[in-house]
């Protein structure tokens, strides 16, 4: 036996980070698969017993229209941090809708199955928040070789983006006005559908007026979200993502109206009030974060 063969082999370097990443992704994909299977099981059950009722309509919208496009970025190859972040925020509407189906299904046979599905999908969603593993995935698929140095202009733009966002008073006032107007529309709907004075929707004219309030709020939140996302520099997470969540929560009602025949008689008034309250809470948090950021500019 030669000396070369007798020489002990060097131990391979541990690949803890890669193993941790793969384990986390495996858990995410497993939960997404199991969660969707649970939703399908629940829908099959309610479709047999109560077809056309509120839980069946909303659950079908989640399974067919909301969740698949939300998690589609997770299956892109190669997976990037941008894909992960898109799927992470995209799932918020589906999770809120599933929570709504659970509220409508209390005491029914599908409640436990729905809660299991929500828990699996919520855990997958939480694991998509890679704040603790920022460098585990590439930010985006590289279109140019990584070794090409940035130009002075690109360096300056990158530095500018990493600085706190420079807002002006006109932007703050404009966004505040949109938040306030959206909040007012949703608050009116909450009063209409609250426990104290539930509204009886009498005809299509009533539905048109109510959906007009929803559409008005959704348009305002969409405009606010787009404007906030176009602001260069760092903004508080609540300013960016809570605006997006509020837009998704309100927009889901409009979407299922057109896609699934949703009307305000479909769900109990108190449930709608609670659902809308979650959007108002997101608006309030976004507004407070934006105001605090503006007030701290000279700190």
Can you give a write-up of this model?
This protein has 299 residues and is mostly helical. The protein folds into two domains: 20-133, Four Helix Bundle (Hemerythrin (Met), subunit A); 167-295, Four Helix Bundle (Hemerythrin (Met), subunit A). The chain is 70% helix and 0% strand. The protein contains ten helices and no strands. It has helices at residues 3-6, 16-49, 54-71, 81-104, 111-127, 152-162, 169-193, 204-229, 237-260, 269-295. Helix 2 packs antiparallel against helix 5 and helix 7 runs antiparallel to helix 10. The termini are far apart.
Cα end-to-end separation: 73 Å
The CATH homologous superfamily name of the largest domain equals IL-4 antagonist (De novo design) like domain
Report on the biggest sheet. Answer: none
- CATH fold descriptor of the largest domain: Four Helix Bundle (Hemerythrin (Met), subunit A)
- Quickly name the level 1 CATH class of the largest domain: Mainly Alpha
Q: Kindly state the mean pLDDT as a whole number?
A: 77
Q: How many DSSP-defined strands?
A: 0
| Structural class designation | mainly alpha
């Amino acid at each position: 036996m030669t000396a070369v063969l007798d020489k002990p082999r060097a131990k391979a370097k541990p690949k803890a980070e890669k193993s941790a990443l793969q384990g986390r992704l495996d858990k995410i994909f497993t939960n997404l698969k199991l969660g969707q299977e649970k939703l399908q099981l629940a829908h099959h059950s309610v479709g047999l017993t109560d077809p056309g009722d509120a839980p069946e309509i909303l659950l079908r919208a989640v399974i067919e229209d909301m969740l698949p496009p939300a998690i589609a970025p997770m299956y892109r190859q190669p997976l990037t941090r941008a894909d992960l972040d898109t799927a992470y925020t995209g799932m918020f509407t589906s999770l809120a809708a599933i929570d709504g189906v659970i509220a409508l299904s209390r005491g029914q046979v599908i409640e436990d199955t729905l809660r299991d599905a929500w828990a699996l999908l919520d855990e997958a969603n939480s694991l998509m928040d890679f704040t603790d593993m920022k460098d585990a995935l590439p930010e985006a698929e590289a279109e140019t070789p990584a070794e090409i140095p940035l130009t002075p202009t690109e360096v300056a733009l990158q530095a500018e983006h990493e600085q706190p966002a420079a807002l002006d008073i006109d932007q703050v006032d404009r966004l505040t006005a949109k938040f306030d107007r959206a909040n007012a529309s949703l608050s009116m709907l909450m009063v209409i559908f609250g426990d104290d004075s539930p509204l009886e929707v009498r005809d299509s004219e009533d539905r048109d007026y109510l959906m007009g309030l929803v559409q008005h709020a959704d348009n305002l939140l969409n405009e606010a979200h787009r404007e906030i996302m176009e602001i260069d520099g760092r903004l508080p997470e609540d300013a960016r993502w809570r605006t997006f969540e509020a837009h998704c929560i309100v927009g889901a009602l409009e979407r299922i109206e057109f896609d699934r025949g949703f009307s305000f008689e479909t769900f109990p008034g108190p449930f709608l009030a609670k659902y809308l309250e979650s959007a108002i809470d997101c608006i309030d948090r976004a507004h407070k974060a934006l105001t605090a950021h503006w007030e701290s500019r000279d700190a």
